[in-house]
Amino acid sequence: MGNKLIITIDGPAGAGKSTVSKILAKNLDYVYLDTGALYRALAYNALKKKISVEDVSALANLCSTTTVVLKNIDGRMKVYVDGEDVEEKIRTEEVSMAASKISTYAVVREKLLNLQREAGAQGGIVAEGRDMGSVVFPNADYKFYLDAQLEERIKRRYKELLEKGAPVEYQSVQKDMLVRDKQDKERKVAPLIIPEGAVIIDSDNLTVQGVVEEITSYISIK
Length: 222
Ligand code: DC
Description:
By secondary structure, the chain is an alpha/beta fold. 48% of the residues lie in helices and 17% in strands. The protein binds 2'-deoxycytidine-5'-monophosphate.
């Protein structure tokens, strides 16, 4: 069986974190934690309740009255908000932008912090997001920072939205990506940084399998 490690993968939107983390978790028989889904779930709830993403006090109130639960479904931590399975509804561009905005607020991040730590308490987890190695799991066994050129990340996101059948324009994906990069990297609380001790992986010239192999080459499970 080996030790149950905590492996973190941070990086900007479109770097391929989700795809790689899912495969890695499966290969190791670990659980996969997509922490972006938590911010997306709260953002979705705010949009549904017509709460402005600029209204911090209404969002604080929403945080204190909303139940967010993670359930392990076949090795993947799924998010439930007030009992609702929101997985299908949180992948739109509107929710992406709202999630990036509300994740700049300390009250939102505090709401989700313990939930993430509890999910990793027993180890055996691949956790991906923006502050996994820096804030949520600073003592993780292995930390990675997955990056790719801006243009490549925009292309990937555009393709992903097209495949979902969403009405989408390249230029608006480009604009959103720039806003999101800036917001995620420049916010005051838990910004996206290269965590101390993280291995940087550049996915530009690598296939998904290539990235998984490179990450795996660093991991030793005793
Ligand atoms: O990884 P994602 O694109 O699903 O994340 C959506 C947004 O959530 C992202 O733009 C910023 C926020 N986020 C965060 O602040 N911290 C994390 N650990 C994960 C996501």
